[in-house]
Amino acid sequence: MKTRDKILKASLALFNEKGERNVTTNHIAAHLGISPGNLYYHFRNKEDIVHAIFGEYVRHLETAFTPRENGPTLDALMSYMDGVFYTMWEFRFFYASLPDILARNPALHQEYFQVQTQLADRVVAIFRSLKEEGILNIDEESLPDLAHTVKIMVTFWISYQTTQAIEAAITRPVIYQGVLKVLFLIRPYLAPEAKDTIARLEDHYRRLATRTR
After folding, report:
1. Bridge partners of 190?
2. What per-residue confidence (pLDDT) applies to 212?
3. What is the pLDDT of residues 2-32, one digit of tens each?
4. For the chain, what percentages of helix, strand and coil (3-state, to nearest 5) are there?
C-alpha cells in the first residue's frame, strides 16, 4: 500500500475512533511510525486529509446508490440498506461532526452540497423504480418528500445518537438501528405483497441491532 493510502486509512480509523477534532497530523504520523514531514509531503494539512476521505465517501455513494438498470427487486432493496449501513459506519466521524467540518472548509461544503443534491435525485429514482415494480404504493408528488426525509434521517442519525448520552459510543448496532428507521419510514408505502418480505428484512436488521458490538 502506498504511503498516501496508508495515511488515509489510518486517518479514517483514528477519526472514527477518537473523533476528527481530537486527532492531529502528529497523531496520524505517530500512529503510522512516519515523520510529520513525510505526511506533509502527501497532504498539506488535516483538512486536505478530510477532503481526500470525502472523495472516498463520494465514490462509495456513486457505487451503492445508483439505480439498477434491470429494475430493483426486494433483494436490491436489501443491498441498498446494506449500502446505507456501510456508509454510515465507514464514515461515521463525518456524520458525527458534519456541521463543524463543513463550516471549516467552504470548498468542501460546496462539494458536499452538490453531492447531496445528486444523491437526492438517485434516491428518488430508486423509489420510483420500486414504485414501478409494484413494491411501493406512493404518488409521484410524494416521492421527493420521502427521499428527502430518508436522507435527513441517514445524515443526522449519528449526530442525534451522540446527543443522547455523554460520551455515547457509535457501534454497529447503533447504525443498524438507523437502518431500521429507514425501513420504518418506507413501511407505510409498501404494497401488500411486499410487506412480508420487508418484515423479514426488519427481523434481519433487528437481530444485528441487538448484538453487543
Report:
1. 136
2. 56
3. 999 999 999 999 999 999 999 999 999 999 9
4. 80, 0, 20
Instruction: Kindly give, in sequence order, each residue whose CB lies less than 8 Å from that of residue 24, ignoring residues fewer than 6 positions away.
Output: 46
13 backbone φψ class: left, alpha, beta (φ>0; ψ -120 to 50): alpha
Burial (0-12, 13-18, 19+ Cβ within 10 Å), 132: exposed
Q: How many CA atoms lie within 13 A of 209 on its CB side?
A: 16
Helix (H, G, I), strand (E, B) or coil at 69: coil
CA 12 to chain CA centroid, Å, is: 14
**How far is the first Cα of the chain from the last one, in angstroms, to the nearest whole number?**
29
Distances (CA, A) of 122 to 48, 68, 119, 127, 182: 28, 11, 5, 9, 16
How far apart CA 122 and CA 128 sit, in angstroms, is 10
Residues 108-149: pLDDT tens digits? 999 999 999 999 999 999 898 888 888 899 999 999 999 999
Cα–Cα distance between 159 and 96 in angstroms, integer? 5
CB 62 within 8 A of CB 83: no
pTM of the model: 0.88
CA–CA gap between residue 129 and residue 125 (Å, rounded): 6
212: three-class secondary structure by DSSP: coil
Quick one: pLDDT at residue 165? 78
